[in-house]
Amino acid sequence: MSAMINHVTDDSFAAAVEQATGLVLVDFWAEWCGPCRAIAPILEDLAKSNEGRVQIAKLDVDANQRTGMRFNVRSIPTLLFFKDGKLVDSVIGLTQKTALQERINKHAAHAA
Amino acid sequence: MSKLDLIIVGGGPAGLCAAMYAGRGMLNAVLLERGIPGGELLNTEKIEDYPGFESILGQDLAARMTEHAKKFGADIRMENVEGIWKQPDGGFKVTTSNGETYHAPTVIITAGGTPTKLGVSGEAEYAGKGVSYCAVCDGAFFKGETIAVIGGGDAAVEEADYLTRYAAKVYLIHRRHEFRASKVVQERALSNPKIEVIWNKKVLDLTGEVIGLKTVNLEDTVTGERSALSVTGCFVFIGFTPNSGLVRDHVAHDATGYLVTDDRMMTSIPGLFAAGDLRVQLTRQVTTAVGDATTAAIAVEKYLTDLKTGVRA
Prior knowledge:
The structure holds 2 protein chains of 2 kinds.
Chain A: E1 5-8, H1 13-18, E2 23-29, H2 34-49, E3 54-60, H3 65-70, E4 78-83, E5 86-92, H4 97-108
Parallel strand pairs in A: 1-3, 2-3
Antiparallel strand pairs in A: 2-4, 4-5
Chain B: E1 6-9, H1 13-24, E2 29-33, E3 46-47, E4 56-57, H2 58-71, E5 76-78, E6 81-86, E7 92-96, E8 101-104, E9 106-109, E10 113-115, E11 131-132, H3 135-138, E12 146-150, H4 154-163, E13 169-173, H5 183-190, E14 195-198, E15 201-209, E16 212-220, E17 226-230, E18 233-236, E19 240-242, E20 272-274, H6 286-309
Parallel strand pairs in B: 1-2, 1-9, 2-5, 9-20, 11-18, 12-13, 12-18, 13-14
Antiparallel strand pairs in B: 3-4, 6-7, 7-8, 10-19, 15-16, 16-17
Helix pairs in contact in B: 1-2, 1-6, 4-5
């Protein structure tokens, strides 16, 4: 697993995401979820190629159920975009890299 | 990349089996899959009708098929195919959303289908926020809640039963007064105290709030009477639409878009073969998908030999 991806939990979510500045993309995932495994390498690539523009975090919904419930995550992978701690966008399901890059560009353009 | 003999479009059981045979036949083949290989196996909890495996998790069978194909040299790439185009030289061009282009004299399309949508307002809005097409993927997010399942075939009735593991109550809504599902599947669901069957109702629309789905609005197919059910989830299993639209040239298909093939799995376009769920056939099982794919891969070998020797099959 890439060091560029920050693994967050129910306990660390507020500090790592909601009190962070700039753009944070949180991937809600689980071990048993096929599309989540498919999107993982895409997110690792995006973390590398967008260093400094977006922070990518992952939250395991099996081990951390409270955060998913708070944001009403009903399907995984769900990717939530937070800008300066505020939820600004979401992408649900396996999504191609180019489409995700466009979302990052859209939100990162105004950040930092 | 050296010159390809074969492009396989789709990495479900049919695609993986075709890749395995292509590898054994020493063909230079590439398999293009938009996600991770496994196809419908990944949307199924347990497979209990694949010979040699009395019961195996869908994802485990997918992993085994993938390893098996790779053992014989399958080149599996994560690519979302956008189109398959016939070329003037008789071969094919396959384009992907990453901007890649692949060329080969033969293609086996094993792209399966996509769940059919209800086509009602609110469906897209609440997709992933209550609306789902996969019980195994999303069921666990509805623990202790009241949900609806739409449909009357094997998938709907079976998944309604599966979803009672998580949901407190499941309304199984069907627009007719009887199910198409097999008897054994029906009996299991009908005797499940958490399932309430609602006959003769169709979905008018889905409504909710920013946070997610709240209500399924129904209309009686006999009386026209309208009603509403409060649910946080709506699982839709009303069939599959074959992904045959990837073929950008005219190809023979039936009224619902399934591709017509000959007994070698070749479509009406020479060199384009089809296998698995998107082919016109009586039943769509893992076993039939791998059977189709075996025939298709071997037919491809013969087709390529005939091309080289100038004989057309």
